[in-house]
Amino acid sequence: MILVVQKFGGSSVADADGFHRAAARAVRERQQGRAVIVVVSAMGETTDRLVELARQITPSPSRREMDQLLATGEQVSIALMAMAIHHADHDATSLTGGQIGLRTDRRFGRARIREITQRGRIESLLAAGHVVIVAGFQGVDEESNITTLGRGGSDTTAVALAAAFGAEVCEIYTDVEGIFSADPRCVPAARKIERIAYEEMLELASLGAQVMHGRSIELALNYRVPVHVRSSRSEAKGTWIVSESPEMEKVVVRGAALRRNLARIALLGAPVGSRVAARVFAEVSEAGLIVDDIIQTVSGADGATNISFTIDADDVADARALAQRLTREHGFKAVEIDQDVAKVSVVGIGMRSHTGVAAQMFKALHEAGVTIENINTSEIVISCIVRREDGEKALRAVHAVFGLDREQPTTT
Ligand code: ASP
Ligand code: MG
Fold first, then answer.
1. What is the C-alpha separation between 238 and 187, in angstroms, rounded?
2. Ligand 1 pocket member 41 (CB < 6 A)
3. Which residue has a Cα nearest atom 4 of ligand 1?
4. pTM summary value
5. Which residues pair with 172 in a beta bridge?
6. Cα–chain-centroid distance for residue 149?
7. Which residue in 47, 44, 53, 55 sits closest to 18, CA to CA?
8. What is the pLDDT of residues 141-194, one digit of tens each?
9. d(CA 74, CA 80)
10. In this structure, which ligand is nearest to the CA of 70?
């Protein structure tokens, strides 16, 4: 039997009506003869509220207890979803991450899925005609400690189930109509993308597009799970995230993204010939800091080494302490911390076969009066570091110059 996985995000199940609408979709699939696994997130802003509650108790809650707490949100949702489907006269059974044996490693708050041990339980429920409802975002480690997959992690649960059970599609229901060429709150001219390649979506997710959990796209790519991101309030087609096809390369830039909240740490003036970079970044990664761009320069006159890197601005406190220690240990002369940088990027597999894309982007930024502080390119991405205050202007400028506000050639 054909299987579909339907994932409903918190905004789609914010209240009783939301559950009934979601239930109706699942039931409709069943009536058309397909097996259905539903994955749900916590209702509305529940997870944020739980985070805030913990913060009222202590500024540094234990990571284990934090996961124990946050996982409760999804447990509420699965039970209510099952009730909504029962109310529509259909069989449904809800299961927690632990109940399906969704095993993860023990990295509380950002655990990775290892395997699903209770496949048989899901298979027999599906065979008996039940809609199987699984709690998103949560798993258990080897000792049955509850773990969570990181904020937004229900997407990853859904794609993992779709991959494990060979689903025809993983539908991600949300409060927007799909993936847009840029965040419409900042770029009013942004348009819904019809089809986007996994690689493009992966880049956009890591570059600041907040629609989907990055890890879920990696899984979708690895297992070639077609993902359909769409609105839970309409029947309109959303965005398909799929394997790339030759026609998709006709579009040079598929989307643009802005990461607003970056900081740059510069370690200046390490003595000549000291091979500091390896040691610095070993310690940076040990501290759990996720580094974005890295620049190393050797200054002409005295041959001293300067290293700078960007990180999420939320990590500045950790980074500051580390930078001060590194400075002492490796003989840097000074540390500079700039908390006001942003990064604007364009992404498209079409860049592989088109030239002059970077030049076009730099010209557009220049004409918009935006100063480029650093440039980073890879096969399908060009990114520029800019002042945070210029971020939105920069995003609009690149969005326009690549024609993203116009209808794209169809790629189906
Ligand atoms: N409820 C979790 C969160 O808010 C997981 C999710 O929604 O995907 O991050
Ligand atoms: Mg989400």
1. 19
2. yes
3. 47
4. 0.91
5. 7, 229
6. 11
7. 44
8. 999 999 999 999 999 999 999 999 999 999 999 999 999 999 999 999 999 999
9. 10
10. 1
